[in-house]
TrEMBL record:
Pfam families: ABATE (PF07336), zf-CGNR (PF11706). Residues 138-180 form the Zinc finger CGNR domain. PANTHER family: BLL6575 PROTEIN. SUPFAM superfamilies: Jann2411-like. It comes from Paenibacillus glucanolyticus. This is Zinc finger CGNR domain-containing protein. It comes from the Bacteria.
């Protein structure tokens, strides 16, 4: 399972390219995919595209839409409106074409799309594989509203609520403690 969780880390990293951690009150977070070159570097880093592939503004818009719909599809996400029946995600996935190739050793699903869009299609294939292998539920978003960091839950029961027990977990506990102390006057 370890290697597959590493693959899930890629999806977490992708969703975290919109870093929602608040550094001050009202902080909108950090957009890492600011321009086409940012998306290009990200896709290249994880081998979703080749060196010579180009990435367009259309790909960038699609990439951001895909990203927010993947975030909404994280189980137990208290921050985003639930994507009922994966309507948004399905609408976006419907814009990609795939094909299935039989092989001697194993069969593979491949992207019909090329260039930047092909990279996003390969990312979707990875999502598909992870879901098929029941690993999707290990993808979590930190329940702290001022964090919302997406992480892979490696705990045995798989019920982690915070990206880090040390930081966000303790912060939440202290807050509860303070509120309880306050209400007790
Ligand atoms: Zn957190």
């Amino acid at each position: 399972m370890g290697a597959e969780l590493e693959q899930l880390e890629i999806i977490a990293d992708y969703i975290n390219t919109h870093d929602r951690r608040m550094r001050y009150e009202g902080d909108p977070g950090v957009e890492i995919l600011e321009g086409v070159n940012d998306l290009r570097s990200w896709l290249l880093e994880y081998g979703f595209i080749h060196d010579l592939d180009s990435v367009t503004e259309v790909d960038l818009t699609l990439a951001r839409e895909l990203r927010s719909s993947l975030r909404a599809a994280i189980p137990y996400n208290p921050h985003d409106p639930k994507d009922d029946d994966f309507q948004t995600l399905n609408r976006i996935a419907g814009q990609f074409r795939f094909f299935y190739r039989f092989g001697e050793m194993s069969d593979v699903m491949e992207s019909v799309e090329e260039q930047g869009k092909g990279g996003l299609a390969r990312l979707l294939i990875l999502v598909f594989r992870l879901r098929e292998n029941n690993l999707w539920s290990r993808l979590r978003v930190c329940t702290a509203a001022d964090c919302q960091w997406v992480f892979v839950d490696r705990s045995r029961p798989g019920t982690g609520k915070w990206c880090s027990m040390k930081a966000c977990g303790n912060r939440a506990k202290n807050k509860t403690y303070r509120e309880r102390a306050k209400s007790m006057g």
